[in-house]
Amino acid sequence: DAEVSTRKKTFSEVQRERLDQAERTVLIKCPPKLNEKKLLQYLSTHGNVKSHFFFENRGINALIEFSEKSSIASLQDAVGIPNAAEHHVVPFKSRLFTFTLKNPGSQSAEEAPLHLSPQCHIPVTDLIQKLCLADSISSQMYLLLNEYQLTEENIKLRFLACSLVRDFARAYFPDSTVKPFGSSVNTFGKLGCDVDMFLDFHDTQVPATKMKKGPFEMEFQMKRLPSERLATQRILSVIGDCLDNFGPGCVSVQKILNARCPLVKFAHQPTGFLCDLSVSNSIAIRSSELLYIYGCLDSRVRALVFTVRCWARVHGLTNSAPGTWITNFSLTMMVMFFLQKRSPPIIPTLDQLKELADAKDKHIIGGYDCSFVSDLRKIKPTKNTETLDVLLGEFFEYYGNFDFRRNSINLRKGKEVNKPESSPLYIWNPFEQDLNISKNVNQPQLEKFIAMARESAWILQKEDKTQQIINKEPWGLAALLIPFGRSNSSKMKNRMKGIGSETIRSLLDSLKLNNANSQQKAVGK
């Protein structure tokens, strides 16, 4: 443990630590006027309280982490069943409690106000005001990162949500776990983002091994189904029904079982999260770990990603609803690729990380090689010393002039390669190399991105910071987070020159392709 604490922990170590923490945690709905000291004194009669915090979500709530798991059983034994005068209750004893005062009037009105941990980021308008007080674009970007990134408290709440779902899953599958993946764990999550979680049977899928003594082999008798997909659909259907019928605070449960990746969507009211539950999404976990490594290697990585994603959202380049726009995941990959292309590179390519992998890092999933080093100490720090001021401007310059018509983005190689097909934006999936993660993006959306990148590069190059501060005008990053209005529409048209011709060219190409196909079909008839 001492050795682990002196270095950056591996992704797996962090996951294990957080999951263990969550199993020792309860969530308590509190009354409006609460004596924090008295609540902690009462809870301490069941065991040592290791950490706690309060937050606002449909009232005041307290997350309580005990030192020992046995303290939760002790507390559950002392807690009563709700009065069922109006509604009949489902007798499932969870780790969600409601704490009320027997004599509210006797409580002192002079209680110290509770410190409430924020669970969402500040509005962009408030952020812009804060950014104007910084002394450099680098400072502005770190300030944005600090305001938007997941807090320690919010991460604990996310793992607790997974742990509470796991309590239901274990009624059917005692060895299963429920783990978060994606933005909740990859260091790029924004306050308020959804919780992606998956049901993991990794420990139960160990094949039968030969018994040490005697001529016998033993294995479990298990239900056999024609396909893994059908098994996944059946499992999620049952867990979904379980959450819908018996899960305290689980509402708006939707079973989306015919999707490419079957899942259950639901809102978890006690924690305030929107959740997506899937089954054993191994490649998604590897993607989460890869981003975790990149995020840990250099502080500039996360600052640039958060800045670019905030910028994209302000200008309508990304959207929380599915559609033809660029996703946050695609944008993050574009930032990673740009950082691989710097001289010297700021982060290594995936192939370079694979070369550093040892036997325990080898992962072949569904025929795809998902191996890369997990120990951060094996990765040499970059010699690149460029400031974020420089990198932000260069990012917009790079993609404002990128040849999207011919080239694709490949993080495995860290270089542009010819597009294998005609999608407007082609970003290779880092692991499933036959997939384009940005296949949904259409030509108008890509052109909008290019136009905004060119405009942003121009603003950063031309602005007079001192004059703007004197005039009390937004400058640097703050100026980029204000939607570009009609006042500079004529300037934008000049910088858009050349983009329209790409559209015409791509339309002609597609017409030629369609014409050739129709001629082939006609010949075939």
Structural commentary:
Residues 10-78 form the RL domain. One of its GO terms (molecular function) is poly(A) RNA polymerase activity. The chain is α+β, with helices and mostly antiparallel strands and 525 residues long. Among the domains are: 16-98, Alpha-Beta Plaits (2-Layer Sandwich), CATH 3.30.70.330; 300-347 and 382-512, Poly(a)-polymerase, middle domain, CATH 1.10.1410. The chain has 18 helices and 13 strands. The longest helix is centred in the C-terminal third of the chain and has 26 residues, at 499-524. The chain is globular and about 70 Å long. Residues 1-6 and 510-525 have low confidence and may be disordered.
Distance between the termini: 72 Å
SS content category = alpha+beta
**Helix segment tally:** 18
Main sheet strand line-up: 5-6-9-8-7
Largest sheet: 5 strands, mixed
Give the second-level CATH assignment, the architecture of the domain at 300-347 and 382-512: Orthogonal Bundle
Relative strand content: 5-15%
In the CATH hierarchy, the third-tier topology of the domain at 300-347 and 382-512 is known as: Poly(a)-polymerase, middle domain
Shape, principal axes of CA atoms: globular
User: What is the strand tally?
Assistant: 13
Helicity level: 40-55%
Low-confidence stretches: 1-6, 510-525
For the record, what CATH class of the domain at 300-347 and 382-512 applies? Mainly Alpha
Radius of gyration: 26 Å
Average pLDDT, to the nearest integer? 88
